[in-house]
From TrEMBL:
This is SMP-30/gluconolactonase/LRE family protein. The lineage of its organism: Archaea, Methanobacteriati, Methanobacteriota, Stenosarchaea group, Halobacteria. PANTHER family: ADIPOCYTE PLASMA MEMBRANE-ASSOCIATED PROTEIN HEMOMUCIN-RELATED, STRICTOSIDINE SYNTHASE-RELATED. InterPro entries: 6-blade_b-propeller_TolB-like (IPR011042), SGL (IPR013658). Residues 104-273 form the SMP-30/Gluconolactonase/LRE-like region domain. Pfam families: SGL, SSL_N.
């Protein structure tokens, strides 16, 4: 459930990459250990992906700094996190006419809240630098999981609670900077499972490319996990004859997939915070160049993306059936599209507004 801010840096301009690499001290150690990859061609922006202006001019429901995801309690109040580590909620319930709602601080965390979901009256929170958290009705924060299989949970990202109470959640990357995962393609993301009875956390699936959103699959026996750095959605089977297996659900996506949600109609809403960055797809073919860039300051590998608002709906077979756009980028960097009472509530990691898109 994370993608970085829009940045423009000259070393990423195609004409200056060679110059940047030439200036590197070849004996210097690189922080990047990339693999080579030829990214699949993106689909054409046509048919169900044809650009429109569906997301233009949407109402602002809540304003905080970086509301990456949202959740609603039984009373209809909206909860979201912010870059400062605080959890906020609306003072009053939210309906289809709410705009610019007043918020209050609900809790404070030691990380940055990302994915949110309610389990009963408690709010479960996945956060960078914090792991898996539970927040009770009084705002008291309890850490449920901070490591798994001897590795710290560095980048807890999204959450799904199964009917048996198991809390599935993603740990996106081993890196502190998400950009390093996108450049390296080390596939260090994991799908984890927290057992509330034993209070233990297990690793269910490794080798994921920036493991991000997680949601139940269409067959009742699997989960869908978005892999941001690999432009795909993976289906992982947790029950049945295929338990433990995984396979692609949708590949060669038009951009970087973030959160994935369903409203129970058999389709899936996937937030796309950015279309692909051409420089990434090009340089992945030349890992030696990326290794040299890893010797430069962090700012040299900030990723140049253009503001574009996009949410894509998939059917149960992984086909695109609808897309919502804002080509002007007034709504941009959409990291979550949460269905609630006939509307989608759109979160963003590096904007400041939760927007509402009416579904009917």
């Amino acid at each position: 459930m994370v993608f970085g801010p829009i940045r423009r840096h000259p070393v990423l301009a195609a004409g200056l990459v060679v110059a940047g690499v030439a200036a590197v001290n070849r004996s210097q150690e690189s922080r990047l250990d990339p693999v080579g990859w030829r990214a699949p061609d993106p689909p054409a922006m046509a048919g169900a992906l044809a650009a429109g202006e569906e997301l233009s001019g949407l109402d602002t429901v809540v304003s905080v700094d970086g509301p990456e995801d949202v959740a609603f309690d039984a009373d209809g109040r909206l909860y979201t996190g912010a870059e400062d580590g605080r959890m906020y909620r609306t003072v009053d319930p939210v309906d289809d006419e709410t705009t610019d709602a007043t918020v209050e601080v609900f809790a404070e965390t030691d990380g940055r809240p990302l994915g949110l979901t309610f389990e009963g009256e408690d709010l479960l929170v996945a956060g960078t630098g914090a792991g898996l958290l539970s927040v009770d009705t009084d705002g008291e924060v309890t850490t449920l999981a901070a490591s798994a299989d001897g590795r710290p949970i560095n980048f807890a990202d999204d959450i799904y609670v199964a009917d048996d109470g198991t809390v599935y959640f993603t740990d996106a990357t081993v890196h502190g900077r998400f950009e390093d995962e996108l450049w390296e393609l080390g596939d260090t993301g994991r799908l984890l499972a927290y057992d509330p009875d034993s209070e233990e956390t297990s690793v269910e699936l490794e080798g994921l490319g920036f493991a991000n959103g997680v949601v139940p699959g269409p067959d009742g026996e699997s989960l869908l996990v978005t892999e941001t750095s690999r432009y795909r959605i993976t289906q992982f089977f947790v029950d049945g004859d295929r338990a433990g297996e995984h396979e692609p659900f949708a590949e060669a996506l038009v951009g970087f997939p973030d959160n994935i949600d369903t409203d129970g109609d058999g389709t899936y809403w996937v937030a796309i915070p950015s279309l692909r960055a051409d420089i990434l797809d090009t340089l992945h073919r030349y890992p030696w160049v990326i290794r040299q860039l890893g010797k430069l300051p962090d700012s040299a590998t900030e990723i140049d993306i253009e503001p574009y608002g996009l949410v894509v709906r998939f059917d149960e077979d992984g086909n695109v059936v609808e897309s919502l756009h804002d080509p002007d980028g007034d709504v941009f960097g959409v990291t979550s599209a949460t269905p609630h009472d006939g509307a989608l509530y759109l979160g963003t990691l590096f904007g400041s507004d939760v927007k509402r898109y009416p579904l009917s």
